[in-house]
Amino acid sequence: WGALIGAFVWSGASQAIAGARSAQALEGISVAALMTPAVAVPSGAGLGAQPDADVDVVLVGPDGTPVAYVDREAAATVPADRRAATPVAAVAVPLPADVTVPAVLTGRTAVQAVGRAARYSPVMVVVDAEGRVVGLLRAQDVIAAVRGAQARGRR
Fold first, then answer.
1. Which of 3, 16, 65, 105 has its CA 20 to 30 A from that of 94?
2. CA end-to-end span of the chain, whole Å?
3. What is the pLDDT of residue 9?
4. pTM
């Protein structure tokens, strides 16, 4: 009996240690570090108003609420002589409500917030403390960071 009870205790302790390491590893996850910079552009703007290609673009409605983001690959297919006349919405991916994530989130809180938002969209809008658009965050980047953190936590 002693050996059986010892085995259960050992198994539980091992799982607790692994969970603690995993939680510790998640503390290195940061929304701000994983996002790509983005700027807000009015949803009625023309594609010619889009900033340089190194920055993501989030379309916002009249009240400043994010409504879509520009698909860079689609935008790149628009000929240069047609960009000014092409509405930016023509190369945009609509965003559902509630897919904003605060830039200040880190650790388990960040992962949980991304998990909630990712139920609605694989791409989330990152906002600063005042609610201004500062970036885009892709769920796949967060998943990769979590897996990497967990792998480091097992060592």
1. 105
2. 33
3. 41
4. 0.79
> Look-up: residue for tokens 């240690």?
17
The DSSP bridge pattern shows strands 36-42 and 56-60 to be parallel
pLDDT at 151: 74
Axis crossing angle, helix 107-118 with helix 2-26, rounded to the nearest 10: 80
Gap between the Cα atoms of 21 and 18, Å rounded? 5
DSSP string, 127-149: E-TTS-EEEEEEHHHHHHHHHHH
Low-confidence ranges of the chain (pLDDT < 50): 1-21
Q: What is the pLDDT of residue 59?
A: 95
Which residues neighbour 90 within 8 Å (Cβ) at sequence distance 6 or greater? 47, 78
Are 29 and 115 spatial neighbours (Cβ–Cβ below 8 Å)?
Answer: no
pLDDT digits (tens, 9 = 90+) for 91-109: 999 999 889 999 999 998 9
Q: In the structure encoding, which two tokens stand for residue 42, read together?
A: 């009015």
96: helix, strand or coil: coil
CA 104, distance to chain mean position in Å, is 12
> For residue 49, what is the DSSP state?
G
